[in-house]
Amino acid sequence: MSKVAVVYWSGTGNTEAMANQVAAGAKQAGAEVSMFTAAEFGPDQMDDFDAVAFGCPSMGAEQLEENEFEPMFLSCEPKLNGKKIALFGSYGWGDGEWMRTWEETCRSDGAQLACDCVICNEAPDEEAEASCSALGKALA
């Protein structure tokens, strides 16, 4: 059984709803799933999991949330080489540039992206929920 961490930051609840769907998908695929907010997770936990899903909404000028999520993610970056990960998040404006930049960062760090990222505008609809569940299954 694979061990999957779902790590997220959510300001309005949209990314948290996505995280719950990711976790549900991974559990359906047989994984042991642990959920963490960005404040609860750090690099010392990366080796405890076979795969990690990171979720963060777009903030400001299409960037990661900079007070909790980004510092946590930056501290985990050295552990991404060879790690199976997936990315998800919501946005309210823009075109997803923050996610494309984030994916490129992860690829440059040597991470193995398990599937395409999942983004949704505002609250996840049925299609986004299904995509988040599939993301979780891909990690498992």
Q: Which helices and strands appear, and what pairs or packs with what?
A:
Elements: E1 3-8, H1 14-28, E2 32-37, E3 51-55, H2 69-76, E4 84-91, H3 97-108, E5 112-113, E6 118-121, H4 126-139
Parallel strand pairs: 1-2, 1-3, 3-4, 4-5, 4-6
Helix pairs in contact: 1-4
Please explain how this structure is put together.
By secondary structure, the protein is an alpha/beta fold. The chain contains four helices and six strands; from the N terminus they run E-H-E-E-H-E-H-E-E-H. Strands 1, 2, 3, 4, 5 and 6 form a six-stranded parallel β-sheet that branches. Helix 2 links the parallel strand 3 and strand 4 (84-91). Helix 1 (14-28) packs across helix 4 (126-139). It is globular, with a radius of gyration of 13 Å. The N and C termini lie close together (8 Å). The mean pLDDT is 96.
Structural class given helices, strands, pairing? alpha/beta
Low-confidence stretches: none
Helix run count: 4
User: Shape, please?
Assistant: globular
What is the succession of H and E elements? EHEEHEHEEH
State the distance separating the first and last CA atoms: 8 Å
Average pLDDT confidence is: 96
Total strand segments:
6
Most strands sheet: 6 strands, parallel
Q: Report the helical percentage.
A: 25-40%
Q: Which range does the strand content fall in?
A: 15-25%
Radius of gyration: 13 Å
